Amino acid sequence: MTEFILENFDFAQLNSPDFKEDSVREVLILPILQQLGYDNQHIIRSKSLEHPFIKIGSKKRKIKLIPDYLLKVADNYAWVLDAKAPTEEIKTGEHIEQVYSYAIHPEVRTKYFALCNGYELVLFRIDTENPVLSFHLAEIQYHWETLQNYLAPSAFQSGKHFVYETAHRAKSFPVKETDFDYLDRPLLDELPVRKQSAKRHFGVHGYFTKQTWNVVQEYIRHFSRPDDLVLDPFGGSGVTAIEAMMTDRRAIHIDLNPMSFFLVDSLATPVDLDKLGQAFEKIKHQFEQKCPTTDDEIALALEKYPYPTGLVLPKSSDVETIEQLFSPKQKAQLAFLKHLILKLKEESVRKSLLLMFSGLLNKINLTYHSSSGRSEGRGNSSIFAYYRYRIAKQPALIDLLKYFESRLKKVIQAKREIQSKINAQTIDRLQVIKGTATDLSFLKNGSVDYIYTDPPYGKKIPYLDLSIMWNAWLDLPVTAEDYAQEAIEGGEHDKTKTEYNTLIAKSIEEMYRVLKFDRWMSFVFAHKDPEFWHLIIDTAERCGFEYAGAVKQSNGQTSFKKRQNPFTVLSGQLIIHFKKVRQPKAILKANLGMNIGEIILQTIEGVIAKHNGATLEQINDELIIKGLELGFLDLLKKEYSDLTPLLMQTFDYDEKSEKFSIAKNTQFKTSIDERLRIKYYLISFLRRTALEKKYPTFDEIVLHIMPLLKNGTTPEDQTILSVLEDTAIRLGENKWKLQDEGQGELNF
Asked: Containing domain of residue 517, as a range?
């Protein structure tokens, strides 16, 4: 049975620096080869081949080629497989060329060659540029039949004829409903961040927020199957939609911002890369011949070529209108470059060049500044750094054509990464829509298999206001209705918290309607105000969702905004999970016998004790999760919209570690009854483990809650056991779960 090939392998091991190329070979590749039907006699390891053409040195020494695996059928080589470390890219670049050279070697001469880095397996034919099959090893069961059709020994026996389908065409992922239980999915632990390793998301085009691609991809693979429909109604830069496509799902990307639609649509449009390169060279030559550089040429260009004028910028801006964001030279050269691009007839090439042009706008404006100690091109615009149009003290006036050319390299890298999944045959599996999450009427009830979305966080970023520069240069209209439907607080239209709440609530209602029963919604959120968290949970429960747990997730490197505002900006986020089930269970409100102030101090001191000092994010996350699990978010939102003043008054703060700790020469402040403290942590821990369908032993319970109970005296194990017996029931000899919660509110 194919499902047992890698069933017991923990793919989190790939994140370890100790899991290298040799581990990929022996732990992952070898079992696959054996399951395909190859015995040791037909698996040829590390065969030394002499390069047929190249020799080096004065003595013309021959170069050795050493493929990891040559697979034999009868007495002939059938295909080549090379292992790479998990950190290596295997869909583009020199590794493909290397393994191709093995496949065409005179001693080998195979039709197929493959690469595997532990995460993915990619199969090529020597006569095609794109992979004929690529998939994640964690989903090998969905692709096993196709893999056998290509590579099993029987596929190469003479006299046999096979008709193959490429992976993107396959409607027939050979998996029965019983092979994948949608409801019985455990929550994922926090995942490591691999931001810059995907060129399709890093370097193509800036955006205000981007979800980490490998985190999104892992969630999509975990909660859905190939060919399922994945929805992101707050699509932003398109990470969800693109990663859904990369994992053989269908995808719908929705966003109000025309810039978002343009970015994703342009990135996902298939294009002939040779034609794109030729068009670029043509435009480069024309630009170099007639680029406006002198005062007279600049003045003439500004009269001849259109550029955006008159658009009023947000009140927080350093200048009033859009044209004041650029020097005359920048305006003239951008307008001329855009004019040359728009003259191109082939739409796919024109879209790709406009994507390059739009990405360039981040650098060619007066808000752009170089980062200290780096080259002039390694900086940022204040629009992304400060979330406002702030003119740089010393704008970095960089060479437009030089950085336009660097855009070409980045776009080609991105296109190459995705072209096997998003091409002329597969593009109908992606819908990119400019629209609002509050109206998904084009989707039928129960038509979506999984939702992963990252909505706006209240006042944090006014997306439409900050996108004026890009939308104007790209001639993308923004309507009054767009502003009315934008789910933000504040902004140029002074939208109220009530308006934001109403729009988010309506969006959740629509997401519930279009999601299938027994499917999941993952809702990414990061906000300090408990009212917004309460809104999400309350609305989701009212619609019929069942809360299924929340997970902390880092988003990688600390942002500039966080470094500038350590107490008002949260780094990282929580991913809240909901299930759409026919009989949802509501979150019970545990009566803990404490007031909300005691609960907050109890939680903060517990987190500080557990981590030996805690960051703002750790404290905020723990309070939100506790509030979700114990049902006191409604109380929390009434008392505290911002914890920072309380933290600064009550605890010591270390700027270097960014951690709060118990003030020097003081003890924990909360003097809550010991048994009550134990109950508090027991309920939270057992509810969390129950959501993950885990039932801990007594020792595991003690190890978890003991660090949280430091307060001068340490309770005896017998005391914890006594409280546990009053609160939970024993399963078997030594596992525990909370008492039946179906009888109503838990009272202690």
From this structure: 195-256+421-467+477-586
